[in-house]
Amino acid sequence: MQQAHRIRKQGHFRYVYRRGKRASGALMTAYFVRAGRLQAGFSVSKKVGNAVIRNRVKRRMRESFRLMMPGLKRGNYVFAARDQAAAAGYADISTEMAQLLSRLNATKESP
Question: Which residue, among 54, 45, 57, has the nearest Cα to 97 in the 3D structure?
Fold first, then answer.
């Protein structure tokens, strides 16, 4: 995922948490706010495993999102991983992310 598509600033995360629509699943919580361009941020708490596991979870979430980007509406997305994400595989994370995005109505309608 390109750096232009990443959310990194604490204030930007806070804005999405406060103003965004939220959908929760077993592995993560997703937040979505409409915006002019598509950006995403990924948060994994220190409650989730050690640093190696947290980084693995973030990589899997980033890759899942990167593959879904062409079918998404423009806006700001934030994904916060839960404890159970540490034991989940890539397919589980990707499936749950797709479900949460559809619940948030963040996917583009098919013509």
Answer: 57
pTM: 0.92
**Exposed (0-12), middle (13-18) or buried (19+): which is 46, by Cβ within 10 Å?**
exposed
Contact 42, 61 (CB under 8 A): yes
Helix %, strand %, coil % of the chain (to 5): 50, 25, 30
Residues contacting 106, CB < 8 A, separation 6+: 32, 72, 73, 75, 77
Instruction: Report d(CA 88, CA 29) in Å as an integer.
Output: 15
pLDDT in tens, 42-77: 999 999 989 999 999 999 999 999 999 999 999 999
All structural domains of the chain, each given as residue ranges with its CATH number in brackets, are 3-103 (3.30.230.10)
Q: Are 4 and 40 in contact (CB under 8 A)?
A: no
